[in-house]
C-alpha cells in the first residue's frame, strides 16, 4: 500500500513538473510559442481583404503598456470576426525572450484568438510606394520626432497596401465603425490621423504619401500626420462646419464628426483620469482617443479609483453602453450601489501576474 502511494505521489509530482515547464516556455519565446495557426500567418494573408484593425509601435519597446494592451484588447473584443494586427519595430522573426521573461503583457496579447503580432519592417513596407525614396535617403538619427514621423509614414503605407482601419495605441474601441473609407475629425474642419480607414489602394492615401515626401518637414509637429490629412482632405473636399452630430460625406469617403472619436478634446484630456462622470454616455462614439501624447504627468490606470479610464479598460463583462444605461437607471430609481464592476467579476490586473494567462474572454 505504501509503495502504491509513493508511486502515485511521484506521478503527480512528475505531471506538475511537466506542466510548469511548459508554462515557463510560453513566456520565454515569441513566435515559436504562438499557436501553430498563428505562427504560419503573414500580414498579406490576414489583411489582404481590407477588413483588419492595425496598430503600430515604432519604438523598440517589447512590453506593451497597460494602455496599449487595453487598446488592442478592446479592438479584439469589438471586432471579434476581424484580425487585429499589431506591428512592432522591436520584433523580428528570430526574436526570443529570455527564460526569465519580463514581457508578460506580450504573452497575454498573443493569447487572444484574433490578435496577431508582427515585425514592423519599414524598408519592406515602403517598397512600391512613394515613401521608398524618402526612407532610403533619410537619416533617422538626426530627425526630429522620428518615432512619430515614422509611425505617420507606416500607417499610410500599411492601410494603402492592405486596407482596413488604423488606430493609435491609445484609442479604446467601444462599438464597430460602420464605414469603409473615412477620416476622423479632431475638430471642425481639422482631421486626425489617429484613426482612419480605407479599402486597399485607395487613391487618397497614395496622394497622401506623395504629399508626405513633397512637403516633408519633421521639425513641424504634426506636419506629416494630422496636418497632412487635413490639407489633403481640403484638396478633395470643400469642407464646412458640422451640423449637429452628422458626418460629412464627399466623393467616396466620409469625414466623421468629432463626437465619433474625440468627444473629450485634447485640452480636457485629464477627464479620462478623473472619477467617471456617469452623464458621459458616449452614445455617438465608436471609440475614444485618450490623448496619451499629452500625458506628460505619467497618469495611468489606478485600480479602485473609479476613473473613466479604469471603467473603460477594466470595466468587466458589461458593454460601455450597458454600464451607462445601468448608471442612469440607478440614479433615476435611486438604486443603491451594491458592487463595483471590478470586484464582482474575474479580471486581469495591471500588475500582470503570471497566474493571469489566457484571461481575456472574462474581461468584458
Structure explained in plain terms:
By secondary structure, the protein is of the alpha/beta class. It has one domain: Spore Coat Polysaccharide Biosynthesis Protein SpsA, Chain A (Alpha-Beta Complex), CATH 3.90.550. Helices cover 34% and strands 13% of the residues. It has helices at residues 2-26, 36-39, 43-47, 66-78, 104-110, 122-125, 131-137, 146-162, 203-214, 226-236, 308-313, 320-333; strands at residues 53-57, 84-88, 115-119, 164-167, 171-173, 182-187, 190-198, 248-250, 253-256, 287-289. The strands form 2 sheets. The chain has an 8-stranded mixed β-sheet, with helices on both faces. α8 packs antiparallel against α9 (203-214) and α9 crosses α10. The relative contact order is 0.11. Mean pLDDT is 79; it is low at 23-34, 316-328 and 334-364. Belongs to the glycosyltransferase 32 family. One of its GO terms (biological process) is protein O-linked glycosylation.
Number of domains: 1
Major β-sheet annotation? 8 strands, mixed
What sort of overall outline do the alpha carbons produce when their principal axes are compared?
A: globular
CATH class: Alpha Beta
DSSP strand content: 5-15%
Helix content: 25-40%
Regions with little confidence, pLDDT below 50 for 5+ residues: 23-34, 316-328, 334-364
Mean pLDDT: 79
How many strand units?
A: 10
- The spatial strand order of the largest sheet comes to 3-2-1-4-7-6-9-8
Amino acid at each position: 500500500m505504501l509503495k502504491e502511494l509513493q508511486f502515485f505521489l511521484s506521478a503527480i509530482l512528475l505531471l506538475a513538473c511537466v506542466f510548469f515547464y511548459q508554462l515557463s516556455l510560453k513566456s520565454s519565446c515569441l513566435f515559436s510559442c504562438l499557436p501553430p495557426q498563428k505562427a504560419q500567418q503573414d500580414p498579406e494573408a490576414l489583411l489582404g481583404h481590407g477588413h483588419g484593425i492595425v496598430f503600430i509601435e515604432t519604438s523598440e519597446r517589447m512590453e506593451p503598456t497597460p494602455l496599449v494592451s487595453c487598446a488592442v484588447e478592446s479592438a479584439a473584443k469589438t471586432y471579434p470576426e476581424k484580425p487585429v494586427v499589431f506591428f512592432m519595430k522591436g520584433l523580428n522573426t528570430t526574436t526570443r525572450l529570455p527564460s526569465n521573461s519580463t514581457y508578460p503583457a506580450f504573452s497575454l496579447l498573443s493569447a487572444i484568438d484574433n490578435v496577431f503580432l508582427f515585425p514592423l519592417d519599414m524598408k519592406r513596407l515602403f517598397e512600391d510606394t512613394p515613401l521608398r525614396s524618402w526612407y532610403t535617403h533619410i537619416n533617422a538619427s538626426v530627425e526630429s520626432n522620428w518615432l512619430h514621423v515614422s509611425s505617420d509614414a507606416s500607417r499610410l503605407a500599411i492601410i494603402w497596401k492592405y486596407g482596413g482601419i488604423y488606430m493609435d495605441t491609445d484609442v479604446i474601441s467601444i462599438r464597430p465603425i460602420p464605414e469603409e473609407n473615412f477620416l476622423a475629425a479632431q475638430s471642425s474642419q481639422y482631421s486626425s490621423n489617429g484613426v482612419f480607414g480605407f479599402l486597399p489602394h485607395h487613391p487618397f492615401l497614395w496622394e497622401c504619401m506623395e504629399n508626405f515626401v513633397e512637403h516633408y518637414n519633421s521639425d513641424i509637429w504634426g506636419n506629416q500626420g494630422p496636418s497632412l490629412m487635413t490639407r489633403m482632405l481640403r484638396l478633395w473636399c470643400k469642407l464646412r462646419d458640422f451640423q449637429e452630430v452628422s458626418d460629412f460625406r464627399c466623393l467616396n469617403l466620409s469625414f466623421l464628426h468629432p463626437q465619433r472619436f474625440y468627444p473629450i478634446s485634447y485640452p480636457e484630456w485629464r477627464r479620462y483620469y478623473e472619477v467617471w462622470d456617469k452623464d458621459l454616455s458616449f452614445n455617438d462614439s465608436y471609440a475614444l482617443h485618450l490623448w496619451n501624447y499629452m500625458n506628460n504627468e505619467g497618469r495611468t490606470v489606478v485600480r479602485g479609483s473609479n476613473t473613466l479610464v479604469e471603467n473603460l479598460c477594466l470595466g468587466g463583462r458589461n458593454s460601455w453602453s450597458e454600464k451607462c444605461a445601468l448608471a442612469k437607471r440607478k440614479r433615476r430609481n435611486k438604486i443603491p450601489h451594491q458592487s463595483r464592476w471590478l470586484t464582482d467579476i474575474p479580471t486581469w490586473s495591471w500588475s500582470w501576474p503570471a497566474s493571469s494567462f489566457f484571461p481575456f474572454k472574462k474581461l468584458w
